[in-house]
Specification:
Chromosomal Replication Initiator Protein Dnaa, Chain: A; mainly alpha
Length: 120
């Protein structure tokens, strides 16, 4: 029972998430790929504006969450978002849009493949 993580306890070297992170892509690699594919600047990725659609920002949050094995609060902190519920909403919106739109799904899959190819 000692190995079970208490709420609020920091990750230790023996924690499974820590071990997976060693093998996962870095968020900077994901951001670089999205910036290149969407032809946007890094500033546009990190700058959220209310009422204005920013597909590249949502996709990057989704991919950092999935490919980099980051928690919602970690992704929120990384992108300077006030609440991790914003990240959750962006991820769910991206997933729903991918289910409807083949073009977006193909684009995201190509970015994922490129990230994993660079990693190998």
């Amino acid at each position: 029972m000692e190995r079970v993580r208490r709420p609020g306890a920091a990750l230790t070297q023996e924690h499974a998430r820590h071990e997976r992170r060693v093998l996962q892509a870095a968020p900077e690699r994901v951001i670089g790929e999205v910036v290149q594919r969407y032809r946007v600047t890094r500033e546009e990725i990190f700058q959220g504006k209310r009422g204005k659609e920013n597909e590249a920002r949502k996709v990057v949050m989704y991919l950092v969450r999935r490919c980099c094995d980051r928690t919602l609060p970690e992704v929120a902190e990384y992108f300077g978002v006030g609440s991790y519920s914003t990240v959750s909403w962006s991820c769910r919106a991206t997933e729903a849009k991918m289910a409807k739109e083949k073009r977006l799904r193909d684009r995201v899959e190509k970015i994922k493949a490129s990230i994993h190819q660079l990693q190998a």
